[in-house]
Amino acid sequence: MSDQKTMEQKILLQHEEPLKTLDDYLARGGFQALKKALGMTQMQVIDEIKRSSLRGRGGAGFPTGIKWEGVYKKQADILGMIPTKYLVCNGSEGEPGTYKDRYLIQKNPYSLIEGMMIASYAIGTYKAIICIKEIFKKEIAILQRALKECADAGYIGDNVMGTGRNLPLELGFGPDSYLLGEDRAQLEVLEGKPAWPRAKGMIPVEYGLFGQPTVVNNVETLSTVPYIILRGADWFKSIGTADTAGTMIFTLTGDVNRPGMYELPMGTSLRTLIEVYGGGAKLDRHIRAVFSGPTNAVIPADKLDTPLDFASMRKIPSGIGSGGFIVYDDTACILKAGLNFARFLAIESCGQCASCKTGTGRIAHRLGLIEEGKGTEQDVFAILEDCLHTKGSGRCYLVTETGIDISSIFYNFPDDVVEHLEYGCLKDRHLPLPKIKDFDEATHTFTFDENYFDRSFAEGRYIIEPAL
């Protein structure tokens, strides 16, 4: 695929300069999609999104239109009670290696707002809420300014665009917690509770915010909606693959020459993302592994030609997640990288499920022993047993993520494990956890939260060494 063709297929990042005012957005056709949607029936809007095959860009890849339809069709129950429907935008972005949602808000908050207004109208919501971490000060300020502009111009709130439709939209804030990104935990936070996932089976479409039917979509998903409504489902499906239509913004970090955010058509290979857009490995080094965040199995170098869509990534087997890829070359210790993710997940486990909190803690502890050269074969077997038996045992996916991620390192890099058992780690290079704080676009440089582990331990959210 030529660079020119790829540029033509950009949807969300068509312009280098950020849109700083509502007038900038209107000059580029902003809110014409909302106007078009308000002239359609609610079901016509939903059908267009369904026909476009838009899949959620937050990680799971669930079909957006089906989720919308599920909430739209919720009518009065057997007691005659009319459900109060909600739309929640997940703007938490707490996964290491991801920054695309914050970047998108910085570039263009208006497409998110317009997408939420279209979704609110289609679903028939009582209220729409953007849930964002309270530490994201820059993005909060941008959204507050944009929301005021749109409210003053009549694009959100009461009597939107003179149609008599009331479509309120507000901001909601949450803690710097990884689990804030879990949709059921996020709803708990918006209800004033801790970020603790609800029990399995309590899906938001059925039992969401305040027990009411709720759609939860992420920033990128909702920002894409106006372009689909304006240009049509067939146009959107002409980009990408049969499995995953459209484009996605990928966050690329680690051992590449040009880290950054790149919007590419789905089906672009992981190798193209790394070598063409990321500039490939540094100096004379060679790429050994790529992590799709801490959520999926590690991707070895011989799988780099895999197309970036949900089905292809499952086959290798790994996952596309929220589009964040962390690259490690041959100077990096892959076990050390895995230990970073294992510790992160152990710290972020909320503690509701003993199998999760103790299981992630045991895995991180034993992996730390192996990394230090103090591990034994028994530690390896114990880690693999925990990875196997804790999968699917928690209320959310966190403990399963640990099992998938860490066991895949042992499977794909067995020689590294043997080397650590015999000699300890032979690579003294520091590897930060890629928990991103900021991005300098001029230099293509990410700033990581280097003090995360120390701060977390100081707050008392540390892993207690288990009795072995």
TrEMBL record:
<keyword id="KW-0830">Ubiquinone</keyword>
<dbReference type="InterPro" id="IPR037225">
    <property type="entry name" value="Nuo51_FMN-bd_sf"/>
</dbReference>
<dbReference type="Pfam" id="PF01512">
    <property type="entry name" value="Complex1_51K"/>
</dbReference>
<dbReference type="InterPro" id="IPR011538">
    <property type="entry name" value="Nuo51_FMN-bd"/>
</dbReference>
<dbReference type="InterPro" id="IPR019575">
    <property type="entry name" value="Nuop51_4Fe4S-bd"/>
</dbReference>
<dbReference type="Pfam" id="PF10531">
    <property type="entry name" value="SLBB"/>
</dbReference>
<dbReference type="GO" id="GO:0046872">
    <property type="term" value="F:metal ion binding"/>
</dbReference>
<protein>
    <submittedName>
        <fullName>NADH ubiquinone oxidoreductase</fullName>
    </submittedName>
</protein>
<keyword id="KW-0411">Iron-sulfur</keyword>
<dbReference type="GO" id="GO:0051539">
    <property type="term" value="F:4 iron, 4 sulfur cluster binding"/>
</dbReference>
<dbReference type="InterPro" id="IPR037207">
    <property type="entry name" value="Nuop51_4Fe4S-bd_sf"/>
</dbReference>
<keyword id="KW-0479">Metal-binding</keyword>
<comment type="similarity">
    <text>Belongs to the complex I 51 kDa subunit family.</text>
</comment>
<keyword id="KW-0004">4Fe-4S</keyword>
<dbReference type="Pfam" id="PF10589">
    <property type="entry name" value="NADH_4Fe-4S"/>
</dbReference>
<dbReference type="InterPro" id="IPR019554">
    <property type="entry name" value="Soluble_ligand-bd"/>
</dbReference>
<keyword id="KW-0408">Iron</keyword>
<feature type="domain" description="NADH-ubiquinone oxidoreductase 51kDa subunit iron-sulphur binding">
    <location>
        <begin position="335"/>
        <end position="380"/>
    </location>
</feature>
